[in-house]
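Field reference: "sequence" (input) and "structure" (output). Example, (S)-2-hydroxy-acid oxidase:
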Amino acid sequence: MSTSCNRDHISHREAARCAEMAMVCLTDFEEYAKEHLSKSTWDYYAAGADECCTRDDNLLAYKRIRLRPRILRDVSVSDTRTTVQGMEISFPVGIAPTAFHCMAWHEGEMATARAAEAVNTCYITSTYSTCSVEEIVAAAPNGYRWFQLYVYRDRKLSESIVHRVEALGYKALVLTVDVPYTGKRRDDIRNQFKLPPHLKVKNFDGLIQEAVGPEEYGIPANTLDPSISWKDVYWLQSLTRLPVIIKGILTKEDAELAVEHGVQGIIVSNHGGRQLDGGPATIDALSEIVDTVQGRIEVYLDGGIRTGSDVLKAVALGAKCVFIGRPAVWGLAYKGEEGVREVLQILNDEFRLSMALSGCRNVAEINRNLIQLAKL
């Protein structure tokens, strides 16, 4: 470490500069968030289901994949742009839907939305936002946004939010299909996790009676509908002109059914390892889904993205775009909008560098030839 960052005798200004310099990669933001958030808030964001095998494997799976870089390809000019659902974004990384951003930063989802708008990428707003969809749109009026939703026992609740977001200019609906029931997250149970009293699930303000009985993640327990089935995809399509994207598919069988039911995209996702423990890492599930879909609809992925080379591997294996969940929250905890922008910028810079070092000048040149297939 250089003498200017020797912490024994440095001024506050220099200390601040050293702190700035320390944010080099996404794990630096993770460490900052862990130190600065309350234990129950950190545990909520970090939680996986049961023994957290799937949560951890989401990351470890990337480390098992090796690249086959091509050299002498003139990478003096590079272009990271791509499109999702016909809309151009600056690079193939968007922000996945995660709940309760106001627990990490006082402006919550409004800050997240502004960061995504500034970087020109897609932000999937969670149903479980601590800012309303109206506040989010007002904060970043020109942002490109999709809305994530669940199907509730009270279908009118789902219906009213669909009409609200369509009127507000959200460009797609992301139906999360892997939560008929909430996974068992041990730390949340131990901490008796509750949304802090000054926060609420803003989108349901006035629509759901204050919970008199047990509450689960900010809304009354048993609000989610475990009877959800493929016919509900048709029901959702009947309510809206927006494209419907299904989040939570991990098998080729369900990918085929998704295509047959006319959805416009699939997000390969295991809910950040927070639902079924023992399922596959998303990057390991990606290939069979891409092979089954064969370009009929776009395939995206979330879970475990921590570096630009992770992004490169996912795109090489057929993901049109990846989405980051926890790292966006760490960016928020660090410095709100600016922190989320920094996280996205670091990933963009790392992705551009990995592309160039692999011999790819643009996203179209990234393909499966870049991936070393495991030796039998």
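The first helix runs from residue 12 to 21.
The chain has a mean pLDDT of 93.
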